[in-house]
Design a protein that fits this description.
- With 272 residues, the chain is of the alpha/beta class.
- The strands form two sheets. Strands 4-3-2-5-6-9-7 form a seven-stranded mixed sheet. A two-stranded antiparallel ribbon has the order 1-8.
- The chain has two domains: 8-193, Vaccinia Virus protein VP39 (Rossmann fold); 201-270, Helicase, Ruva Protein, domain 3 (Orthogonal Bundle).
- The relative contact order is 0.11.
- Helix 7 (201-213) packs across helix 10 (248-270).
- The chain is elongated, with a radius of gyration of 21 Å.
- The longest helix is centred in the last third of the chain and has 23 residues, at 248-270.
- Helix content is 36%, strand content 19%.
- It is built from ten helices and nine strands.
- Specifically dimethylates two adjacent adenosines (A1518 and A1519) in the loop of a conserved hairpin near the 3'-end of 16S rRNA in the 30S particle. May play a critical role in biogenesis of 30S subunits.
- This is Ribosomal RNA small subunit methyltransferase A.
- Its EC number is 2.1.1.182.
- InterPro entries: KsgA/Erm (IPR001737), rRNA_Ade_diMease-like_C (IPR023165), rRNA_Ade_Mease_Trfase_CS (IPR020596), rRNA_Ade_methylase_Trfase_N (IPR020598), rRNA_adenine_dimethylase (IPR011530), SAM-dependent_MTases_sf (IPR029063).
- Pfam families: RrnaAD (PF00398).
């Protein structure tokens, strides 16, 4: 690995399979004028072939040794290196021409992949598409359907925001050092506002989090603090169902009922 020892605390497993690297670059399909940001470039397995097709590339890297390598290897006019934690990085702030949205790519560290996906969902309005290498177990949860054991908060929150496609599989030997798990490449494309049914997405997020906080309990119990049986009845949703049984659209309906109920209560208090 060119003298660099993978650091466990950063979740470093470097992609080395040239065939898989080529498949990922083809899936990303970068064009010269695109605004692309790579998360965790590591030793540059994706960085170099991305730059073969791009005028300029942004990378976000937390390991200062790898940051120094990147700056020595690539000229600043081709590569902007942002040193720091991707979990705290403001992706929407990256400079780009008006109307141009970000393409995001990366071999994400497994130890922060879920919170990083939630963080990136917050920047979805600025994103054109995202391609990530992830632990296969995480991808299974991302694409899970209602009623399956893998279906959970991640499935609902990402499925609400993105169209998600499982593209490629990656065995442990595609990396150095090999991880103890299998991996997969996934594509996320933000849904247009017209497909997102929640009138208040913060309320939607709170309803989903509350429902899955105790996923084996009935919705009547997990949401009793905010939605009475009358609310379930008005929506035609069985309150004895469990969180993993409810489709994304029903979570949006529950959130919208809660918003409407709150607005009605406020109107009554004002005497409207």
């Amino acid at each position: 690995m060119n003298g660099h020892r993978a650091r466990k605390r950063f979740g470093q497993n470097f992609l080395v399979d040239r065939g898989l690297i080529g498949d990922i670059i083809n899936a990303v399909a970068p064009q010269a004028g695109d605004c692309v940001v790579e998360i965790g470039p590591g030793l540059g397995a994706l960085t170099a072939p991305l730059l073969d097709r791009l005028d300029h590339l942004h990378v976000v890297e937390i390991d200062r040794d790898l940051v120094a390598r990147m700056r020595r290897r690539f000229p600043a006019e081709r590569l902007s290196v942002h040193e720091g934690d991707a979990l705290a990085f403001d992706f929407a702030s990256l400079p780009r021409p008006t109307g141009v949205r970000l393409k995001v790519v990366g071999n994400l560290p497994y130890n922060i992949s879920t919170p990083l996906l939630f963080h990136l969902a917050d920047a979805a309005e600025s994103v054109r598409d995202m391609h990530f290498m992830l632990q296969r177990e995480v991808v299974e949860r991302m694409v899970a359907e209602p009623g399956s054991s893998d279906y959970g908060r991640l499935s609902v929150m990402l499925g609400y925001r993105f169209v998600i496609d499982w593209l490629l599989d990656a065995p442990p030997e595609a990396f150095d050092p090999p991880p103890k798990v299998h991996s997969a490449v996934v594509r996320l494309i933000p849904r247009p506002a017209s497909e997102r049914q929640a009138v208040d997405e913060a309320v939607f997020a709170r309803v989903v989090a509350a429902a899955f906080a105790q996923r084996r309990k009935m919705l009547r119990n997990t949401l009793k603090a905010v939605i009475p049986d009358a609310g379930f009845a008005a929506l035609g949703i069985d309150p004895t169902r469990r969180a993993e049984e409810l489709p994304i659209s029903d979570y949006a309906r529950l959130a919208n009922w809660l918003v409407a109920a709150g607005a009605e209560a406020s109107a009554v208090a004002r005497g409207d």
